[in-house]
Design brief:
Strand content of chain A: 15-25%
Largest interface: A-B, 29 and 23 residues
Order of helices and strands of chain A: HEEHHEEHEHHHHEEEHEEHE
Shape of chain B: globular
Number of helices of chain B: 3
CATH superfamily of the domain at 46-138 in chain B: Phosphatidylinositol 3-kinase Catalytic Subunit, Chain A, domain 1
CATH topology of the largest domain in chain A: Ubiquitin-like (UB roll)
CATH class of the domain at 46-138 in chain B: Alpha Beta
Oligomer: heterodimer
Strand order of the largest sheet of chain A: 2-1-5-3-4
CATH topology of the domain at 46-138 in chain B: Ubiquitin-like (UB roll)
Number of domains of chain A: 3
Number of strands of chain A: 11
CATH architecture of the domain at 46-138 in chain B: Roll
Number of helices of chain A: 10
Distance between the termini of chain B: 13 Å
Shape of chain A: globular
Structural class of chain A: alpha+beta
Helix content of chain A: 25-40%
Structural class of chain B: alpha/beta
Chain lengths: ~270, ~140
């Protein structure tokens, strides 16, 4: 794994330029505020990087809404804060136009479409439970259970403060496995909105089966969906079009999001 | 209550439930249930009935017991749907907290589907969900 450490860093450093604009109907000042530009890490969550965005716009909405929870929208689609930013981009943006144009709202929180996120503690709890779920799949939850509270904090603070070394000092323990066995199951979520009304699919796929190293292609086959039926497609993560022959164990160790899940998007080239 | 992890294990579900009939969970528990937590908008009822998943609800950490523990749930439903169902059954207030755990380890997200959890963590043809009023496994 050592020789591929550079890949972990490259993935960690993935950024997206975002242009935030306050929803026109919420502007209460005579002159609309300027848009706010930010380079955001693909691996993090919006509530962890948008304090500045909030401060920039909150003065331009009516005082009664100052304490409201801020939410973001892309082309009429409210953005789920509990999805990593890179996943939202890979899932929703088809024309790869940059900067990513997002609308900021303080009013009418769409609680029928978004979970509530009153504080960063909620994001921390979401991250921790995702890590536990991933570890339950990989190692029957043994590693997260044996880790000290201090290690859990390293994972959270590493992501919160964008510190690669701090995060990986703890995360490498979660990536451990015996050389011949690999992970028990690969933690992944497959997003194929073209095929199912569920937001994503999740099922059991081993890393190695009958002494064969399973690949991305094996994973797709087990979804029992005819992906080719809708034309040529890509499997995208971190903006990368993954070759189908890539071994799952390698993808899981190198391309998982900080929650230790692979968030894989099925994407068709637009007609 | 404090935040100390509850070490209690799930009650043994093997005996009592084998004789217990499965009851279908109504597909609507609360008309105001947000879309994110309910199943996809029902298409006009065709012949294909939504497959069901057996969910066993186990109280832990002194949570109130429900007389019926084994339920048949539409596979398209979410944890949030089950949460709102239990809240109604136990007449919990909006301000009352309710936590769910799978595998005695992690709390699934409220928008996670019952099918996904069953596919990954189900055993013996059922999904066991622990519920409690205070945080159990951190």
């Amino acid at each position: 794994m050592a020789e591929d450490r550079e890949i972990l860093r490259e993935i960690w450093e993935g950024r997206l330029p975002v242009c935030f604009t306050l929803a026109t109907e919420e502007v209460s000042t005579p002159i609309a505020p300027d848009p706010f530009y930010l380079m955001v890490p693909r691996l993090t969550y919006f509530p962890l990087v948008t304090d500045k965005v909030r401060r920039h716009f909150v003065r331009c909405v009516v005082p009664e809404k100052h304490d409201n929870e801020m939410w973001l929208e892309f082309e009429k689609c409210p953005l789920k804060w509990h999805y990593p930013i890179g996943l939202l981009y890979d899932l929703l943006v088809t024309n790869s136009e940059l900067p990513w144009q997002l609308t900021v709202h303080f009013d009418k929180y769409p609680d029928n479409k978004l979970l509530k996120c009153p504080s960063k503690d909620v994001v921390e709890s979401h991250l921790m439970h995702s890590l536990k779920e991933a570890d339950a799949l990989k190692h029957k939850n043994h590693i997260m259970a044996l880790m000290q509270e201090r290690d859990h904090k390293q994972l959270w603070l590493g992501l919160l403060h964008d510190r690669f070394d701090q995060f990986w000092s703890a995360n490498r323990k979660l990536m451990e496995h015996s050389a011949e066995d690999g992970f028990r199951y690969i933690p992944f979520r497959l997003y194929a909105p073209q095929f199912t009304s569920k937001p994503f699919m999740q099922y059991l796929v081993k890393s190695i089966e009958n002494e064969k190293r399973l690949t991305l292609e094996d994973l797709l086959q087990r979804a029992n969906l005819n992906f080719e039926s809708k034309g040529p497609f890509q499997v995208v993560i971190h903006g990368i079009d993954l070759p189908l022959e890539t071994p799952l164990q390698w993808i899981s160790e190198h391309l998982s999001y900080p929650d230790n899940f692979l968030h894989l998007c099925i994407r068709y080239s637009s007609p | 209550m404090d935040n100390n992890p509850v070490t209690e294990t799930l009650p043994d579900s093997s005996n009592a439930e084998d004789n217990e009939p499965n009851v279908e969970m109504p597909s609507h528990t609360d008309e105001s249930l947000p879309a994110i937590l309910s199943s996809a908008p029902a298409t006009p009822k065709a012949d294909n009935k939504t497959p069901k998943i057996t969910v066993v609800l186990c109280p832990v950490g002194g949570a109130p017991i429900m007389r019926q523990r084994k339920w048949e749930v539409d596979c398209t439903q979410t944890i949030g749907f089950i949460a709102s169902f239990i809240r109604k059954k136990l007449t919990l207030q909006k301000s009352d907290s309710l936590f769910f755990y799978v595998n005695q380890s992690f709390a699934p997200s409220l928008d996670q589907s019952v099918q996904n959890l069953f596919d990954c963590f189900g055993s013996d043809g059922k999904l066991i969900l622990a519920y409690c009023r205070t945080q159990a496994w951190g």
